[in-house]
């Protein structure tokens, strides 16, 4: 499991890289103002973490379940379903850029959010930004760069390879989570039956954060909303094992990983029905540099 999770994440990031170029990445980053990106920091890292703590209190989650749902709240930017977003009316490059931006913000934001949350429970929890940067660079940014280079060198081949690569990465990650649950065995009997409800509320809450405080441009808002619900399960598992030493967090993480695709697919179907057929202008809209 120690090597399967990074391998799955690496495959998925290579797949994401195949849909990006440096010029597209730079242009998309500049399409929003600095204030818009600052609001996205709150919607991506701070809001979901606070929501996780509130849900844990309201539903009286165990410490292990709390750890899992909190790690989901602080770990954004999963490289899932990116290719399918454009087919449903979302902006593919915005979604991929969001993942890259979230990865770059992780070494800054996760240590700050975790240390503040730890103080609420009279615990000193410190995740080294340097260690996080190393993990992100090796397991996300480096595979992303490989994908981008491959797409530039052989665009036609990259277009053919990307879908199966994305599928393999998702299958490997799912298998790892299932194996982890099997390993937990009897401990699963102690899980509260309200955990799926908490995970559903967490996914909907992550989308709502963007709708409430994110950019106002419709295509940006909805693309970032579905991307924000797509939390980084692989990173949450890694953080759980390396910094929280809590195998009991895995059920919450796995539950979210299983349920969030249904939330995303449901939202995507609603979005496509409402905006895709009669909203080609929305789908093809170009946002000027510096837009909010």
Summarize the structure in words.
It is a single chain. The chain has one domain: Na+/H+ antiporter like fold (Up-down Bundle), CATH 1.20.1530.20. Helices cover 76% and strands 0% of the residues. It has 13 helices and no strands. Helix 1 packs antiparallel against helix 11, helix 9 packs antiparallel against helix 10 and helix 11 runs antiparallel to helix 12. The C terminus is likely disordered.
Summarize, please.
The protein is 76% helix and 0% strand. With 292 residues, it is an all-alpha fold.
Question: What are the key terms here?
Answer:
single chain, mainly alpha, Na+/H+ antiporter like fold, disordered C terminus
Topology readout:
Elements: H1 4-17, H2 22-29, H3 34-58, H4 63-74, H5 82-85, H6 92-120, H7 129-153, H8 155-184, H9 195-213, H10 218-229, H11 233-244, H12 250-276, H13 280-283
Helix pairs in contact: 1-7, 1-8, 1-11, 2-6, 3-4, 3-6, 3-9, 4-11, 4-12, 6-7, 6-10, 7-8, 8-12, 9-10, 9-12, 11-12
Main sheet record? none
* Helix fraction by DSSP (H/I, runs of at least 4): over 70%
Radius of gyration: 18 Å
Count of runs of 4 or more consecutive helical residues: 13
CATH topology: Na+/H+ antiporter like fold
Question: What order do the SSEs take from the amino end to the carboxyl end, as H and E?
Answer: HHHHHHHHHHHHH
β-sheet strand percentage: under 5%
In the CATH hierarchy, the architecture is Up-down Bundle
> What is the multimeric organization of the chains shown?
single chain
């Amino acid at each position: 499991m120690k090597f399967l999770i990074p391998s799955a994440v690496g495959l998925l990031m290579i797949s994401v890289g195949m849909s990006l170029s440096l010029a597209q990445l730079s242009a998309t980053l500049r399409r929003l103002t600095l204030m818009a990106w600052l609001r996205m920091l709150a919607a991506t890292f701070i809001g979901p973490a606070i929501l996780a703590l509130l849900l844990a209190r309201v539903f009286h989650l165990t410490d292990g379940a709390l750890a899992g749902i909190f790690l989901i709240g602080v770990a954004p930017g999963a490289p899932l379903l990116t290719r399918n977003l454009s087919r449903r009316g979302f902006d593919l490059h915005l979604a991929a850029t969001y993942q890259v931006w979230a990865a770059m913000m992780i070494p800054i934001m996760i240590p700050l959010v975790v240390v503040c949350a730890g103080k609420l429970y009279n615990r000193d929890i410190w995740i080294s930004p340097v260690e996080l940067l190393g993990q992100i660079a090796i397991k996300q940014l480096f595979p992303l760069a490989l994908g981008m280079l491959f797409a530039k060198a052989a665009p036609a081949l990259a277009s053919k390879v990307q879908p199966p690569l994305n599928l393999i990465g998702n299958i490997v990650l799912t298998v790892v989570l299932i194996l982890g649950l099997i390993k937990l065995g009897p401990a699963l009997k102690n899980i509260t039956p309200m955990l799926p409800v908490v995970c559903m509320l967490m996914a909907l809450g992550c989308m709502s954060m963007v709708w409430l405080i994110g950019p106002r441009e419709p295509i940006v808002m909805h693309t970032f909303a579905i991307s924000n619900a797509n939390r980084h399960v692989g990173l949450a598992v890694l953080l759980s094992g390396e910094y929280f030493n809590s195998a009991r967090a895995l059920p919450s993480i796995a539950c979210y990983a299983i349920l969030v695709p249904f939330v995303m697919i449901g939202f995507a179907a609603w979005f496509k029905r409402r905006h895709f057929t009669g909203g080609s202008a929305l789908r093809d809209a170009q946002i000027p540099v510096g837009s909010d």
